[in-house]
């Protein structure tokens, strides 16, 4: 295994367990077995660049799985798009379990979503390895067109879906063998996006109705 990959795996583990801002680059270098404590800076430069490299490392195979899934379902509905979002992420857990190795990627994602500067929605969505996510968003916009959701409401629902999926899978990763099942996540996600209610539920005026 190359020094770069060892650094990425050590960073993912420490970020997931301790927090992205709580771990120094020198600590990551030491944990990855690098004698040079500046190895992370040498290979990646900054913390933000290291996070970006983690996205590339993990998202590339997930992106390929999603694209294959979408290609195999040429006429997807809302539920099918949600499956394309959820199942490849859930497979990272089952693949690790089959291999008898721990995983930290989902917990890393849940941690990254806490910070605007690391949130995958803002820093990873335009990356090449996120092409399937962009296709999913466009497809879901078409699939929910008849609901005539205002753009803001659609964006809120997509954010809620992302939080639901990532935090639920992170919980399963943290406690293997427990947590919300994949099909339950798919059903819940499809329900969130398919609800014909078009009101913005964050508007306090609506609580007076």
From TrEMBL:
Keywords linked to the UniProt accession: DNA-binding, Transcription, Transcription regulation
Keyword Transcription regulation: yes
Name of one Pfam family that matches: TetR_N
InterPro entries recorded: Homeodomain-like_sf, HTH-type_TetR-like_transc_reg, HTH_TetR
Source superkingdom: Bacteria
Residue intervals of the HTH tetR-type domain: 7-54
SUPFAM superfamilies per the UniProt record, alphabetical: Homeodomain-like
Statement: the UniProt record of this protein carries the keyword Lipoprotein: no
Gene3D superfamilies: Tetracycline Repressor, domain 2
Full protein name: TetR/AcrR family transcriptional regulator
Source organism of the structure: Catenulispora pinistramenti
